[in-house]
């Protein structure tokens, strides 16, 4: 890493950690998720009523993330809901605030490259989010150890770590989007509104629109229904929200063997056993690739936009 | 044959002729020192009604002998028995064993004379006599009607039994001791290795048994054949032996053929993995666990829909008992199979027996799309790098 980039990177990380906004956001997420975890730990006993099933088989630690007592959403649901907010909140004014305060011109008058500035912003946001989610995940595992008194299996740890990494990538998608908006829109308010509307669009309206365009009627032959479902799935998967949901479902529920519909023919002779981790990962590899690609492409766009932008003092 | 044998002596006392006297003396001496030297007491008669009896070896004859004294004085005489060697005789009267008896004048006494006929004796007529004062006074005939033995007998009413290799065969043997002595017999069965033969007498497992003279014992024999044995008839000689006696009989065990088939793999592992749409070869082992040969063993598989299992060979023509044969099964998974475990059941069937083995087949999705996804990510990152190179350094 170039020296200027590393200096800028460290400054950005420090900025995030010292900012009220970031601290409020992570406090919000940490509190809500820990609350849901606590209720999950309270109700976890009802999840394991089958005495004939060995504990290791059902992934008790994974249940900690997905169990809900009905009043409070599960850990996964909270993270899925709040992670975009975190991404947007951290980066919606990444460039525009510097520009508005006039610090961007001053920064660029230093002997540093322009791409270092935007790279440092992106990497710093990624690093902070990654560290935060990994820390949160390990707190959860520690709590699980405390509650159950049994250690998680290596596979469970792998699954949880991958879940946290996927969450970090998901946040990165929204961060990249927010950086793009912060470059495009000079006003921070416009940027945040644009980001929020995209978030609302994908989490609330997009599923409705997909249902409207490609409804699953369940009528016709099996092939017709399969085609309908295929179209529906394809459209849904254009949304990062869907990709993230599918990835977390597969990662945290090893007994889910397929994402799409599967016919009775495929189910005959199948035994309800949990999938090994590598198979689960292979199943959602396209989703992960999609999320990574999305965030990289969005950042690439903002990079091009930033490099081409005319930067002047006020 | 009571005869007045002393008359010549009286003649000596009566006659003056010296030569006649000498002759008579010599005659007397001759009479004394040869033949039945002591004549039966005069005036005493011996009587028993049955003088010629027919018996079997080992039997005891009891004679009741009446001794009558017709003289006017008390007569005492020595009594003894004469019998072929090996025969046992006894004289009893009044509850005692006696050697001598005295009879009052004009009175009679009864003596019981018992004769034990030995077991080991030839068929024929034998002479027994009662001796009074050394002279045979009552010759008796004993007719032994059978050839006598000195031996043991081992026999069974039902020497043949049929069952499977899992059955227990229970025989009942009779061991007779035809000797005058109590005998302890060692029991032995000459079975081949793998057979288990157990002797039981009166509920106890034994290896030897003692039998009273002339008596018999019932011996139960339970035989367990080896579990892996071919159908057929097997002879098991069973012996009862003492130092100088031996009795033998042969038991016959007929093993009926059983049918058994086992399907497994050479390493007993019943799981494998397969890529969706891919093939996997599995080696199966077919074993004939029965005792009869099996013919035309058909191999088949119950598979999930769209799967296919091919066997090489598809049928096994013959399989001898305890023989194994390896078969290669090629499993082909459906292209649309989802990741995770499926059950594929392999069957081996004949009309007589069948077995199946359930395989747990773990389906793995093809790595192709994973690789494609990695390539896409790599491409996107490469694009980003190109962008930085292109627009950077400003």
Automatic annotation (TrEMBL), chain A:
<feature type="transmembrane region" description="Helical">
    <location>
        <begin position="20"/>
        <end position="41"/>
    </location>
</feature>
<keyword id="KW-1133">Transmembrane helix</keyword>
<dbReference type="GO" id="GO:0140359">
    <property type="term" value="F:ABC-type transporter activity"/>
</dbReference>
<keyword id="KW-0812">Transmembrane</keyword>
<protein>
    <submittedName>
        <fullName>ABC transporter permease</fullName>
    </submittedName>
</protein>
<feature type="transmembrane region" description="Helical">
    <location>
        <begin position="193"/>
        <end position="214"/>
    </location>
</feature>
<dbReference type="Pfam" id="PF12679">
    <property type="entry name" value="ABC2_membrane_2"/>
</dbReference>
<feature type="transmembrane region" description="Helical">
    <location>
        <begin position="72"/>
        <end position="92"/>
    </location>
</feature>
<dbReference type="GO" id="GO:0005886">
    <property type="term" value="C:plasma membrane"/>
</dbReference>
<feature type="transmembrane region" description="Helical">
    <location>
        <begin position="284"/>
        <end position="306"/>
    </location>
</feature>
<keyword id="KW-0472">Membrane</keyword>
<feature type="transmembrane region" description="Helical">
    <location>
        <begin position="122"/>
        <end position="148"/>
    </location>
</feature>
<feature type="transmembrane region" description="Helical">
    <location>
        <begin position="160"/>
        <end position="181"/>
    </location>
</feature>
